[in-house]
Fold this sequence. Notes:
The chain has helices at 3-19, 24-40, 42-53, 57-82, 115-126, 140-149, 169-174, 187-199, 222-234, 254-265, 286-301, 330-333, 349-357, 372-376, 414-418, and strands at 93-100, 103-107, 130-134, 159-161, 178-184, 204-207, 212-216, 244-250, 305-308, 312-313, 316-317, 320-323, 340-346, 361-362, 364-368, 386-389, 404-405, 408-409, 422-429.
Amino acid sequence: MKAEVKQILVEANTVFKQWKKEDLTTRIxxxxxxxxxxxxxxxxxxxxxxxxxNKPIKQSVAEIExxxxxxxxYIDNGERILKGRTIKTHWSEVFTxxxxxxxxxxxxxxxxxxxxxxxxxVPTILAGNTVVLKHASNVPLSAxxxxxxxxxxxxxxxxFNISVPGKEVDEVVADPIIKGVxxxxxxxxxxxxxxIAGSLIKPVVLELGGSNAFIINDxxxxxxxxxxxxxxxxxxxxxxxxxxxxxxxxxxxxxxxIKKFAEGAKQxxxxxxxxxxxxxxxxxxxxxxxxxxxxxxxxVAMGAKIVFGGKREGEWFEPTLLTDVTETMPAFQQETxxxxxxxxxxxxFDEAIELSNNSHFGLGVAMFGKDVDFLKSKIHDFDExxxxxNDMVISDPSVPFGGNKYSGIGRxxxxxxxxSFVNKKSVVIN
Length: 430
């Protein structure tokens, strides 16, 4: 490990020894200052994000605003979540307390450069820990801005950036100063970090992506569903773990869905990324667009058909829809991290469930139909970490977020996110 990285870990640990002693009122005051600073600079931060990863400016600014709402959630709910509980037993007094663990490492991706960091760092810091963050190498402007943003006047520095190659992250994980790890990223990266952390008995939270199904039963109003379907697939240029990627549509309405979806996709035109009217951006890197193009071409070679789109120019990948997709094709089995949608028909809802579960991912599923009681009766049949009925899968501060199977372990946000990196102590008094 480079000397400068080790020095940052030592500094973060020194600050932790002070920060853990601050009462919750002080930590909440810090969050209020952080929120205010974030909102004052939202346009500037949004522009940096757009420059980093080709995100339309409208979506970049919205990401900053969403991060501020997460801070507000923990300002309002932090005391309730962290207070512990009293347990009635034969002893005179039994209660629990939630103490911070120490320095927590975050390894974060590029697709939501601010939101991903805030949903990890804010509850972790509020719990009394300090944070060391290794951000994605292709969002350097965002990474620098984040470290500056977390510096709040009147409070110690509790957030530290480190710059290390991905292959050296394991060495940081293994350092005894690091007491826990949160990683959002690829399966190989998650597996490697989890292996090291597990061997050293360190807690981990992993969010590793998904191939979410978007299930449409035969009794829906497609005019209401299609706009949600378009947003679910093409928001953030399709570069989202919770995006609707596999559209499972009842065969009786499949052709009508395809027609309406294709018509709606025409609105997503290439434009100036700094123009607030632009709804879709370029992909973050050309190699990512090339990888998506290969998934598409390999699936077409196996019999899939391109309904619209299918063209790539550098980092630009045209919004695309594939039909005649089977379960063995790459477009069905792999995570399509970009603006490529696939449609698969089904005849019975049980068949749709089987199609949805035929994935090594298990992050989320959205299902749509008029009979809500029927859909609720099916929630235990899915392998996912989240079930959304009559809405697209989203991440919200009030709802625990995380997946099953190869989508990861642990939960972020809500109560669970604040308690991910605490020592849940039981206190017994006789």
